[in-house]
């Protein structure tokens, strides 16, 4: 099981900003090659209105073809499948390159967002990862499928069940925990309503609801204590 934090699908995943700044001015070409940032396309862009995708070999209008600023054009559908598959493969998708085996051009974050659904992210699409549910935690947990245990621990020290993301609850099953949480929520809502709309009887402490405008209150038949709603004092002594 591995904990990792997502910051950006950019070179910051490998370099700190200061290290990248120093390396850039020391050897710009080396940095460009490492991160796949090209100065110009590797091949010339064709002028044809229709082009053939090098992956599926179907023909498309030029506006349906895309490249990673390298000149290797592929259709929107093949790009989408390539990016989605890479997302499912793990954190390596954060340094995604052109599908052409001979090309190292980096795929920009803007291109990924344009070609893949907003709902897709590595964590949300992967069966092997879950976001830590702790408030304010930005970490995700990468775990081994088939390990037999659902209990995981995050770098933030929070422990939870990777199946339902509730607190660890072995040996109780997740569906039982879910029903218990729903029951507690309903009871909590009832308690909140009672506190907002009732007052305890000064004698027996049973919660009494005020339904009419009169301040003269009488407790339930077992108690029958009469009191003032405003001051909770005995009505008979007022």
Automatic annotation (TrEMBL):
Keywords, comma-separated and alphabetical: Metal-binding, Repeat, Transferase, Ubl conjugation pathway, Zinc, Zinc-finger
Record domain RING-type: where: 49-238, 53-97
Pathway where it operates: Protein modification; protein ubiquitination
Catalytic reaction list: [E2 ubiquitin-conjugating enzyme]-S-ubiquitinyl-L-cysteine + [acceptor protein]-L-lysine = [E2 ubiquitin-conjugating enzyme]-L-cysteine + [acceptor protein]-N(6)-ubiquitinyl-L-lysine
Pfam name, any one: zf-C3HC4
EC number: 2.3.2.31
Molecular-function GO terms, alphabetical: ubiquitin protein ligase activity; zinc ion binding
Gene Ontology terms: biological process: protein ubiquitination
Origin superkingdom: Eukaryota
Co-factor(s): Zn(2+)
Job description of the protein: Might act as an E3 ubiquitin-protein ligase, or as part of E3 complex, which accepts ubiquitin from specific E2 ubiquitin-conjugating enzymes and then transfers it to substrates.
Family classification: Belongs to the RBR family. Ariadne subfamily.
Name listed for the protein in its UniProt record: RBR-type E3 ubiquitin transferase
